[in-house]
Amino acid sequence: MATFLLTADGTHGDVWPFIRLAEGLGRRGHEAVLFSHQAYADTAARAGVRLVATDTAEEYERLLDDHRDVLLNVLTSVDRVVDFYHRNGIFDQIRAEYEAMAELARTRPAGEVVLVGRHMSRLSVLLGREALGVPAAWVCGYPQQHMGASLTQRLYPRGLADPMNALRGRLGLPPVTDWGTWLSGVDGCVCLWPDWFDTAGDPAPAGATRAGFLLNDAAETGPLPAAAAALVAPSQPRPILVTAGSGRMLHRDWYATAVAAVAEIGRPGIVVCKYRDLLPERLPPGLHWFPALPFATLVPKVAAVLHHGGILTSARAIRSGTPQVVLAHGVDRPDNARRLRRLGLAEWLPAARWTTADVAALLRSVLAEPAYRRRAIDLAPGTDSDAALDTACQALETLLGRTPTAPAPTRAPATRTATDLSPERAALLRRWLDQRSTRRRGNHAEAAVSDDEVRRRLDAGR
Fold first, then answer.
1. ∠ Cα 117 121 122 (to 5°)
2. How many domains does the chain have?
């Protein structure tokens, strides 16, 4: 029996697949321990998974509230993300998680421990790979995670490098200067989407395992409460399901726009949202609010799903043969929405185009055109979560007994000398040096090529 130490943060779309993964590894005879939010302890317990809480329920709710604006605006406000890390004690959490993992790992036989983390967010697995000499793997829940790797790498020189290196120093590890190499320094990568979803956009990294969507049916199956069951009774017109996931990281106009569009087309609607304050004070007639419902039971019974573009909601709709309309804003959602549209499964709009009339028009389109439902039914067999789980577990098992190829590099590559450059690049470098020398002598005449342009051309290999 081997030991897999898994760690994940986020909301249902991030954590539920890790619970399923830990459950699958346990059924294959391994010890699987999940480090995650206390809020998921009950879900993990029902799956027979041991969860080590990384926070309290109250701390988790504060984190979700803080997520709301900061991480949605990461592309325009990197400094706000840096403040978010400091404000929420992320580095203290990384250290505590690493130490708990290390305590377990050191009591297990050599070659029988693997660390598994949510892609580029659970950095305790990288610390463990270096300090303990055990293999580590990233798990990508959606394509944008690997596509956004360069953005993650940018965060560290902008304010996260010093606290991370201070943490490393306390653990006896040298400082990192080449953040891109360190953050990608794992022994395997598992992507939780199928090949056909991969081909609809930028592909997964070379060498990664594309396992498939990992839905947590046990957490999403169960009887509907009487009020919801009455709305999807065979004698009633099928309602529209309106949902924007299990967190608070959402455009402030999302629910107001969505419910107005459903009311515009005159269809009944079921609104599923944990947080009542995200909704309009009064819902239009015919729309009914529930804080939570079992989607595996509900989604096959609705006419369409109007949602935010989360990967698990998208996959659930495909598996249920249900058309989709996506109002996508922030993080992975626009990329997921584009893939769904290219696959003929959905229509979508970015936030700049959200109007009641436009969203209502898309709802009418997917309801009237049977091709959307037919396409979802055709692809539903490609959402086999049991097969995806087997593939993911097998990929992680291949890491057992593997010694990390080398400690992740912690130094930037050596600077090349002028003799390493092509004649064209050497001439460009000389021109830049002449330009800087002229500036130092006090002559500030405008140069033909700016410093930034020279650096860009050199970096590009010109």
1. 45
2. 3
Has residue 200 been placed in a domain? Answer: no
pTM higher than 0.90: no
The sign of the CA dihedral 362, 367, 370, 373 is positive
Question: Which has the closest alpha carbon to 355: 327, 332, 330?
Answer: 327
pLDDT, tens digit, 9 for 90 and up, residues 290-324: 999 999 999 999 999 999 999 999 999 999 999 99
**What pLDDT score does 417 carry?**
41
How much is the pLDDT for 155?
Answer: 76
Cα–Cα dist 26/1, whole Å: 10
CA gap 257, 306 in Å, rounded: 11
Asked which of 175-179, 212-216, 324-328, 339-343 is least confident by mean pLDDT, the reply is 175-179
Q: Which residues of 144-161 are buried (b: 16+ CB within 10 A; e: fewer)?
A: bbbbbbeebbbbbeeebe
Whether residue 176 sits in one domain with residue 223: no
Q: What is the pLDDT of residues 11-26, one digit of tens each?
A: 999 999 999 999 999 9
The whole-angstrom separation of Cα 129 and Cα 115 is 8
Residues 169 and 102 in one domain: yes
* Residues 254-262, mean pLDDT to the nearest whole number: 98
Q: What is the CATH number of the domain that holds 66?
A: 3.40.50.2000
333 and 443 co-located in one domain: no
* Cα 119 → chain centroid: 8
129 & 228 share domain: no
Rounded to whole angstroms, the Cα distance separating 316 from 389 reads: 16
pLDDT in tens, 186-208: 999 999 999 999 999 999 999 99
CB under 8 A, 24+ apart: contacts of 45-49 = 46/218, 46/219, 47/19, 47/20, 47/22, 47/23, 47/216, 47/218, 47/219, 48/23, 49/19, 49/22, 49/23
**Contact assessment for residue 330 and residue 350, using Cβ atoms and an 8 Å cutoff:** no
Q: Are residues 363 and 431 in the same domain?
A: no
Range of the domain at 34: 3-187
Q: For residue 6, report the phi and psi dihedrals to the nearest 5 degrees.
A: -110, 150
The phi, psi pair for 452, rounded to 5°, reads -60, -40
Give yes or no: residues 350 and 444 share one domain.
Answer: no
Domain match, 288 and 335 both: yes
